[in-house]
Structures are given as C-alpha cells and as structure tokens.
Amino acid sequence: MINGEILKNAIISGAHNINAQKNHINDLNIFPVPDGDTGTNMSMTVMAAAKALEDCDAENAGEVAKTAASAMLRGARGNSGVITSILFRGFAQGLKDVDEVNGKNIAAALGIGVDAAYKAVTKPAEGTILTVARMAYEAGVEASKENSDPVFVWETIVEKANEALAITPELLPVLKRAGVVDAGGKGLCSIFEGMLSYIKDGEMVEYVEDTNEPTIETFESAAAEFDDDIEFTYCTEFIVGRDPEIETDPEELRDFLKEIGDCVVVVNDEEIIKVHVHTETPGNALTKGLEFGQLLTVKVENMKEQHKNAKKNSKKTTKKKSKKDAPKEEFVFAEPTEEFGFVAVAAGDGMKDLFTELGCTNVVSGGQSMNPSTDDILAAVNATPAKTVFVLPNNKNIILAAEQTVPLVTDRTVVIVPTRTLPQGMTAMLNFDPEISPESNAQLMMDAAHGVGTGLVTFAARNSEFDGKKIKEGDIIALKNGKLTITEKSAVKAVVKLAKSMVTRDTSFITLIYGEDTTEEDAQKAYEELQDRFGTRTDISLVKGDQPVYYFILSVE
Description:
The protein is an alpha/beta fold. The protein is about 45% helix and about 20% strand.
C-alpha cells in the first residue's frame, strides 16, 4: 500500500526527474519557432507541487494528492503544464479521503484525470500527452484486475506510457517526419518514471539545480528607460454614443484627429464610436467627438508626467540588472467595485503600455516561450477592481492556464476571451461594448478578433525543414496566422514580403509592431516600405512594442 509519506516523496521524485530532463524535452519540439518550452513548463508545474509538499506532513494519501494538485493548478504553465495539472487534479479527486492507496485506487484515480484532460482540450489530438496518459490508464486498469499491488500497477502504467510514447510518431505524421516523439508525452513519462523510482525502490531522483532555468523573470525586461521627448502629451480615449440623426462619417473624425495628434484609433459600429489619440489638445478631440453624439466615457492621461514618474521610480529601485534579475510584477488585491475590468497577457514594455492604454487594468508578463502560470493570471484578476473581469491570453499556449482561474475566483466573474495573438487581443479590446452582457461581449470581441490577420517575424530556434527547404537555426522566418510561410535573410525583407501576402483590397489597417531586438532604423525602413506599397489605400501605424522573440508583429485588418 502507498501511504501519504510514500506518495509525497514519489511526486517530489517525479518533479526532480522531469526537471533534470526538461532541456532534452524542450529539444523535442519540432517547429522551428522559438516555442520549445514544453519541458520547462511541465517542470515548473510539477516543481510547484514539490515545493508545496515540502511543508506537508499529512499521512493521508488523499491529502497529499490534494496538496500537490492544488499547487500544480496554480503553478501550471502552457498547455502541457495545464494538462499535467488536470491529470493530477483528477488523480486527487479519485483519492479523496483515501488513507492508503492500492493498485485499483491508482488506476481509477488516473482515469478521472485522463477524462478531465480530454474534456479540457477543445480538439483533443491523438499522438500527444493525452494518448500517453490514456493508454497508461487503460493498462493500469487491466493490471489492477490481475494484481492490485500498487507497485505492480504503477510499473505497468509506466511501461505502457513509454510504449504509447513510442507510437506517437505513427499517430502524428509531423512527428514522424521530424523523427521525434511527442514532447508532452515524454514529459509525462519522465514524471511517472521519477515517481516509480520511489514507489518501487524507495529511491528519490536527485534534484539537479539549473542556474539557467527560464522563468517569467528571465524574460522580463529591466526597468524601462523612458524617452522624455514625447511629441504629444495627452493620451485621450473616449466613447461616443452615436446620434442616429447625425449622418457624419466617422472617417471625418479620424482625419481630424490625425491633424492634431498621432496613434489614432477610431472604431465604430451603428451605436458607438471608440476613439484613442495622443494629442496636445484633448479638448479639441472631445469637442469634435461631440459632433457625432454624446460622450459616454472619457479618459485623459498626461503621458509625460507618467513617464517622468516611471523613470524616477526606476532610478530609485533599479541598478544595472540583468533580465534574470528583473522583478516580477506584484499585484495587490482590489475589491470588485467597478462593473468591468480587463487583464491581458503581453511581453515588452511597449506592448504592456499599449494594452494599458486600450483599457486593461493589469497586464501579466508573458507570451511565446514565457507562459505565465495560472497563479500569475489569478493574481492579476484579483487585483482588478471589477465585478466582471475579462482575460485576454493572447497566445494559444496560455488559454488553458487562463481558463483554470475561473473556478478559483469567488467574489467576481471571470470571462476568458480566448485570443491567440496580440493583434487579436488589441482588436478584441477595441470592440468591447459596455452596454451589453459579459457573454455577448466575449462573443463580440472574439468575432472581431477572428477578422484580424497576424503576421510574425522571428528566428528559427532549431534546424528544421519547411516545404522541402532546409531551415537552419538562426534563419529569419515569418508566420502568417500561425503557419510558417517565409524564410528570408533579414527581418525587414521578411515582414515586407509577409505583408504582401496578407494585405488584400479590403484591408483598412496595418499595425507594425517592432520588438526589442529590432533597431529603430530597421523599424522605420520596414514602415516606409509598407507605406510605399500600401499607404495610399491603407492606414499604417508603427508601434514600438519591445516584445522579445519577435522582430516584428504585423496586424492586418
């Protein structure tokens, strides 16, 4: 039988084992885009449980499983980490109030986790971590009928998990072409093997310290150095309730705002016009807005003063820190006093500022290769003073982690708007309507987000092959709506070629966002080339996003 102490040490051993193998698991990611963080995400998820169990003295196996599952849920990062946490949460549910565990308990409990994991994924695919977990569970059930000894059953589960892992390339052709097994499945096998080491032999896998382990803090920028030479002082935002008797074209408002400022965004439908502009004369902008109807909301902020204070605080609190030393944001709990609030996930000071300007109360650091945990998102939700909080993950690998916050919040409603890219998140924010229900808003925001094309220019993180062409590590690559389409020698050439493939006759807006590894000279060059090609019929904006990983992010709508 497995008591609480044995289960505790087994889970810690499993955490140590995947921590030691995480870099190898990362390398199994076949896509050349720098997203090879499966091992890191799973390791950090299970290590959260290991840390929580260090202070757990429960002799009851069910209590140990509950402690581990709770910690994993909050520490879950990325899709693979969230699925792992869901497997262990089901495992804990199956062991509720169980003092000592036999083989039948283990198999049945794992089955609850497998069922929950399949339900959590919108389109579950075979040849992934789900397959490995399911086949391992099914073998465990059969083994428990033969012999309920927990060591025998867990050993069978591990053996079958590895057999399932070996056939993942047969189930997913993309794995077979690359000659690798599924990374998430390999991670789960590593956890199970580490647990077996203690359950069977009483030997805990040794913890290996990795001083280069990526965390959210690793990727955060040090305190920003703000530019005092801001051309326009006031960030002005307002919503106009359109007067049906006024037939004036909102394009007239857009043209006027361009004359008195920059960073102009005007979005409208039959009922409202939503406006964002940087200007020296916010009063003039508001007065012009009144020509179209009544002002529903108004926000004017002095950007020079904000930047001055930020720079002052930066000098007080920071020295020349490396990115690894940069502090993680701290969110302070806030009572839900307002009707609506927003949380977005983004990386880069410019992107964070942009989402703040669009109305987000809190922005969580994260994105590609730096997935925040469920607990990170939860903290931001609890720090948003609203009765209904909309969360925009802005990355497909963060949606599951965000969804796990919903049942953890009791004093406010959390609505996940499953945006998969930063441009989708920006457009979703611009289409929020305070007059309709949260459910209708989520649908409205996503409908708008689906109309946005996202282009990404980055580098190949590993050797690969695309469309019969060899891609070398470090090559410049471009993705159109998530699909790799272009390889080039320079980021500027890649983004221009990408834009040509995305812009159509119906395109009205292009937003070019440049990252921390792109010089202003290159950004301006790319912007000018886009202006030359599309500027006569398309509104083009250049934004300094400071985002890592991507040299350029292209929003086309």
